[in-house]
Structures are given as structure tokens and as C-alpha cells.
Predict the structure.
Amino acid sequence: MPMHRDLLPENLPALSKRPLAAHKGNFGHVYVLGGSPEMGGALSLAALAAYRAGAGLVTGIGHPQSQIYLAVHLPEATWMDWPPRLASRLPDHAVLALGPGLGQGLAAHDLVREAGGLQQRQIWDADALNILARIGPDILRGAAERIFTPHPGEAARLLRTTTTTVQTDREAAIAELVQRYGGVWVLKGEGTLVSDGSLLGRCPWGNPGMATGGSGDVLTGLIAGLWAQGLNAAGAAGLAVCIHARAGDLAADELGEASLLARDILAQIPRVLQNWSAT
Ligand SMILES: NC(=O)C1=CN([C@@H]2O[C@H](COP(=O)(O)OP(=O)(O)OC[C@H]3O[C@@H](n4cnc5c(N)ncnc54)[C@H](OP(=O)(O)O)[C@@H]3O)[C@@H](O)[C@H]2O)[C@@H](O)CC1
Ligand SMILES: Nc1ncnc2c1ncn2[C@@H]1O[C@H](COP(=O)(O)OP(=O)(O)O)[C@@H](O)[C@H]1O
């Protein structure tokens, strides 16, 4: 049985103050692999969130037809077309976030299969999880550190059960995911859970206004950006989940739940990060 620990600022790591002589190489390099022709927006939201979390450099890896989203919304990011092989393109210190808007075509399958054998830190989300569910845990080779971020529908696919079963006992579902697949897990939805098998935390913030397309992509980028700056996997996941939920609450206070968009969560991240220790 994992030990329960509230996801509150006193139980979570914090980002260190930046040294005066810091340069962008000190704050990590996030690669977001996603962006099928129809879903460049998901990649772009994740990349933006990684930068807002403080990553030094962010690169989108997507289908050429989806580059326009990043070019328009995030000129600060660099770009790479889906390569035939990822291995030679990623530095050892990279954090790879895979899945936002990736789709489930042949190229996506090949890239996800290869990513499962890379040694760089990885965040598995969205279609990367759908492909993992289809192929099975054998795809996760080697000893890379991994964080997985399913919503209840994806968790159900990974556990070969129904969304209702996952939602009926969320703690049992996340325990089973950790046991089957290893790594750190984030089970999204009301009261998001984070567990590495030894600790289990529940996020006390968030609201149904966040049930809107793209808000999970923002979370993925946020985790990647914090992880790239040197936090450990469970710490980065827990902190990102709480910052994301607090940002969602501020956005809902300002705009109302019905009108809330994923980009409104993004817009509140700087404010939450600045005031985090006083939360
Ligand atoms: N702008 C863009 O480019 C965007 C692109 N996007 C990209 O789209 C791709 C597909 O991802 P997706 O999540 O939209 O589809 P999918 O996995 O079939 O999940 C839907 C089903 O899952 C369930 N479910 C979900 N949440 C639940 C909850 N909290 N609580 C309970 N159940 C929940 C629910 O199942 P049901 O309840 O019906 O059984 C629901 O019908 C992916 O690549 C993503 O990145 C999106 O990010 C949007 C913006
Ligand atoms: N009712 C809710 N209460 C709190 N948080 C929610 C609620 N609904 C959704 N969220 C949060 O919004 C995000 C939705 O992620 P996801 O379903 O992956 O969306 P998308 O695939 O569109 O990006 C998650 O972080 C989830 O925890």
C-alpha cells in the first residue's frame, strides 16, 4: 500500500532561484513529439507550457503540416519534422514528451516503439498511451525514467477495462497501472492522483471548466518543463499537476467554467508559479 501524502506546497519540491549568470542551457531541453496533420494545436499547447514552466529550450517534433501552429503561436520553439529515427536527434539530457496530437498512424507507431527503448526521460501522454495500450508493456524497454499521464478513458484502455471501473476506484486503478507498467503515474480528472507506487498524492484543486480540449496537453508540457529543470520525476509530476489545477481555478474565477479554454490555463501559469510558495 502506498503512503498517502497531500499534494500541497510543503510536500512538493520547488524550483531554485536562477543564478545571476544562468544561461538557457541550465534549464533543460524539452522535445514534444506529436502534431499529426490534424492536431498541431496539441503539440503547440504542450510546447508553450514547457516554456512557461521555465525550460531553457523547447523543440516540437511533428508532421510538417502541423508546423504552422508552432510557427504562429510559439516562435521561441525550434522544430523538427518526424524523423525516420529519433535516437540520433535527442541529446542525453533531453526530456521527451510524446503523444500530444500524435495520432495513431503508422509513423506514430514507429516513433512510439522507438521511444520506448530510448534512455532519455520520457512523458507518455494521449496517443502514445493509446499505442502503448495496443502493443503492451513490452514496448517499454531499458531503464529510462518515465511519467505517464492518462485521463480515465486512456487508463481504461491501458488496463483493458471500462472508464466507469477506473472512476469507481481511482486509487486501485493507479496502483494497477504502476504495477503493470512501472514509472510515475498521473491519473487525471477531478482530484488528480499521482503515484510512483510508494507514495500516492491527490491534488485538491481544479474544476470542471478544465474539461476542455487541450487542457491535458498543457499539463504534459508543464511536467516536461519542470522535469527538465532538475526536479525528480514524482516531484515534477506532483508540482505540475498542482500548478496546472491552480491555474485552472484562477482562469475559472476570471472567465467562468463554461468559457474556459486550455490557453486560459496557460495564461495563468506565470502567476501561479510566482506565488506558489504563498499558496
Ligand atoms: N487541439 C488539438 O489538437 C487537440 C488534440 N487532442 C488530441 O486528440 C487525441 C485524442 O485524445 P482525446 O483525449 O480527445 O480522445 P480519447 O483518448 O478518445 O478520449 C476521449 C474519451 O476518453 C474518456 N475520458 C476522457 N477524459 C475523461 C475524464 N476526465 N473522465 C472520464 N472519462 C474521460 C471518455 O470516454 P467515455 O467516458 O466516453 O468512455 C472520452 O470519450 C490525442 O492525440 C490528443 O492529444 C486533444 O488533446 C484535444 C485538443
Ligand atoms: N472535472 C474536473 N475537475 C478537475 N480537473 C479536471 C476536470 N476535468 C478535466 N480536468 C483536468 O483537465 C485536464 C484534461 O486532460 P485531457 O482529458 O487529457 O484533455 P485533452 O486531451 O483535451 O488535452 C486534466 O489535467 C484533468 O485533470
About this structure: The chain has a mean pLDDT of 96. Strands lie at 3-4, 29-33, 57-62, 78-81, 95-98, 121-124, 146-148, 184-187, 193-195, 199-202. Residues 25-197+210-237 form a domain with the UDP-N-acetylmuramoyl-L-alanine:D-glutamate ligase fold (CATH 3.40.1190.20).
